[in-house]
Design brief:
The complex is a heterodimer. By secondary structure, chain A is α+β, with helices and mostly antiparallel strands. Chain A has ten helices and eight strands. In chain A, a hairpin with a 2-residue loop joins strand 2 and strand 3. Classes of the chains: A alpha+beta, B alpha/beta.
């Protein structure tokens, strides 16, 4: 058996079904490694984003005083967490095979199409001067931050409040919109169109991506929700009563008193949940989504035979991602935890 | 403190990479290991009709299974002293190279790369195949050249995956491969319309079709886009073991050529006057010595497993789900215009 990392420079003779970075058959194995990383990270990113948002909603729902809402949320939690993730993935993949074939695709507005191959959307094509719009978005964010800092300072000094949130929203969306209109709307769309076997043009995500994302989000939301519930319950009820007696309305109490203290208990389990999302995305191999494990640890390993090197590289990648997530959230945890001086 | 321990962990990891031992040193010969164990470890794929089917009561049977049984018969005089290992195609070579399996017999294509860079040796070819495409009849596709822009289901870690890409690039067909690890998920995805076509060796396509609820709605396209010589594989650097597997196959092919089958082998052994038959069946000479086997090794194969033609009829012939005609094909005997040829038993 030949060993060493030389194979990374030789060409990989296979094509990859779907990739967010450019790849074509004949690129090197190292390029395949990058394609796999990109595909793993993109699905993990969306899964983490949705998991975190939904987790907060479900966690708060479970504590709702409304009987129906609270029971619905607990039923969801119990059903989802008691079934292995692999079954969730295979379930959504199998269920999606009931979607119509390309020629009878479900379509909306002649621009969005869903069939048993994937989801097809128009792809934006930036024209001349579109980068100015992007610069305006960045400027808007900086300006919004500035306004918030100024408003907070003024409130502390004078007690006068300023609608900093809505001003910020206006800056972030308004500035680029004005620039966009002033430049004469430099953006066109490439619409997907049925041609031959399937849709050509536009942008698409394969069915396996959708099934994987669904399964990851539905499954991991549960653990996020439980962490949020535990966090909120860890804040003593006296805190809520105290803030009510100060005259704060319930939404402010939640936002200004309960959630900030709850975050201390939420962040540590959230770290491992985020890591689990990234690691569990490797189960994609079961349904043919070309993630890092599928394209590199399966296909490349088989075609090149460099088992030890490839497994080590994949392990190193997952370790790096996990340690990065852990480091970032631990930093955030330091910010929110009780400052003992 | 934390940083130090992480560094140590990383260093230990790298060190373990650097000192990875060579897989299975050839101190003991595979034959000795197998004899001591009293069992042959034979690697098959996940169940596929024709080649390695699994019955309801857990028995393996099929065209490739017969190779394992022949080797077992040659060594032990009993074709069933076998521990079957069902392994996905993605990890088949790793399982061979690290010594888990003694031999591999599972529709594996012989290529230069695999023969020289994976620590493996191919023995010979027991089935000459070629890659093709299968589509549903109502797709209206009659030729592989009409597959422009199609989505094609394929198994990971196979030569077919590479051939598909080559074919697509050569003919600018822009085919999207959907790569599966498990042949069952691949097949059910194709059956439910998740791919426009499925590609594999043509015999394996017949095997996939045999699994479908309604077989009449699928057709295999006429194009053959590659050469797929399939045959058993052993670990590199054990010539005696390679010879045993190789000549067990030759024994079945040669038996067909000389008209010996499981029905008449006893009679031939007792009364044949043909010296080659006598040498092969262990009545005369000492052809068994170099193999380290009993004199009757070939007799045992033919008696218990049968000759090549018998196995072909039983698992691939017109009466089976595979229904791949042999007459006049490359898999016929060399005397009938095919490629099946055994060196002389001398």
């Amino acid at each position: 058996m030949s060993t060493g990392f030389d194979f990374l420079n030789s060409t990989a003779g296979f094509s990859i079904a779907w990739s967010i970075i450019d790849y074509e058959a004949g690129d090197t194995y190292f390029h395949v490694f990058l394609v796999g990383i990109a595909n793993t990270l993109i699905v993990s990113f969306f899964a983490i984003l949705a998991t975190t948002l939904l987790g907060f909603v479900v966690g708060v729902m479970r504590l709702s005083s409304n009987f129906v809402i609270a029971k619905l949320a607990s039923a969801y939690v119990e059903v989802m967490r008691n079934v292995p993730l692999l079954l969730h993935i295979l379930f959504w993949f199998t269920l999606s095979s009931a979607l119509p074939p390309p020629k009878q695709s479900l379509g909306w507005l002649d621009s969005f199409f869903l069939n048993n191959r994937g989801f097809y959307v128009p792809a934006p094509v930036p024209g001349d001067g579109f980068d100015i719009v992007i610069i305006m978005v960045l400027l808007g964010i900086v300006a919004a931050y500035g306004v918030t800092v100024w408003a907070t300072k003024r409130q502390f000094a004078t007690g006068q409040r300023f609608p900093a949130f809505w001003t910020g929203v206006g800056l972030i969306f308004g500035l680029p919109l004005l620039a966009f209109l002033a430049l004469g709307a430099p953006l066109t769309f490439d619409y997907p169109a049925l041609k031959g076997f399937n849709f050509q043009g536009g942008a698409d995500v394969p069915r396996a991506f959708c099934a994987l994302l669904f399964a990851l989000v539905l499954y991991h939301t549960v653990f996020m929700a439980e962490a949020v519930r535990a966090g909120i319950l860890s804040v003593s009820h006296g805190q809520t009563e105290a803030s009510y007696s100060l005259g704060l309305k319930p939404s402010w109490t939640l936002r200004l008193v309960v959630i900030p203290q709850a975050m201390r208990a939420v962040v540590p389990p959230m770290i491992s949940n985020w890591m689990n999302v990234v690691k569990n995305s490797s189960l994609a191999i079961a349904i043919g989504y070309p993630d890092l494990v599928a394209v590199f640890m399966q296909t490349s390993l088989n075609q090149s035979g460099h088992a030890i090197e490839i497994v080590a590289m994949v392990m190193l990648f997952y370790m790096t991602v996990s340690l990065t997530i852990s480091a970032a959230l631990n930093y955030y945890n330091k910010l929110v935890q009780i400052k003992e001086r | 403190m934390k940083k130090v321990s992480l560094l140590a962990l990383g260093a230990g990891f790298l060190a373990s990479l650097a000192f990875t031992p060579e897989p299975v040193l050839a101190q003991d010969s595979t034959l000795d290991i197998v004899k001591n164990r009293g069992m042959l470890r034979c690697q098959l794929g996940t169940p596929a009709p024709g080649f390695y089917a699994l019955s309801d009561d857990g028995k393996w049977s099929g065209f490739d299974v017969e190779n394992c049984r022949a080797v077992s018969a040659a060594i032990f005089g009993d074709p069933d002293k076998i521990e079957y290992q069902s392994v996905t195609s993605a990890v088949r070579f790793t399982a061979m190279a690290n010594g888990e399996s003694d031999m591999l017999s599972r529709t594996t294509t012989w290529t230069l790369f695999r023969d020289t860079q994976l620590g493996l040796d191919f023995t010979t070819v027991n089935f000459y195949d070629g890659q093709g495409f299968m589509v549903t009849n109502d797709s209206g596709v009659n030729s592989a050249m009409e597959l422009k822009g199609a989505t094609v289901c394929v198994l990971t870690g196979t030569t077919t995956e590479l051939n598909l890409t080559d074919y697509s690039r050569t003919n600018s067909l822009d085919i999207t491969p959907v790569v599966f690890e498990d042949s069952n998920v691949r097949d059910s995805t194709f059956f439910s319309g998740g791919c426009d076509a499925i590609t594999n060796d043509k015999s394996s396509l017949a095997s996939t079709r045999a699994k479908a609820p309604d077989q009449s709605i699928f057709s295999i396209l006429p194009e053959t886009i590659s050469k797929e010589p399939l045959g058993p594989v052993v670990r590199q650097n054990d010539s005696q073991w390679k010879d045993i597997v190789l000549w067990s196959l030759f024994a079945m092919i040669n038996a067909e050529e000389m008209g010996i089958n499981s029905g008449n082998v006893d009679e031939m052994k007792a009364s044949s006057t043909n010296p080659e038959v006598k040498r092969m069946l262990g009545v005369e000479g000492d052809l068994n010595k170099g193999l380290g086997l009993e004199p009757e090794w070939a007799y045992n194969i033919i008696k218990t497993v049968g000759n090549y033609a018998e196995n072909y009829e039983e698992f691939m012939g017109p009466k089976t789900v595979m229904n791949i005609p042999r007459k006049g094909s490359v898999n016929d005997l060399w005397t009938k215009g095919g490629l099946m040829y055994s060196p002389p038993f001398r």
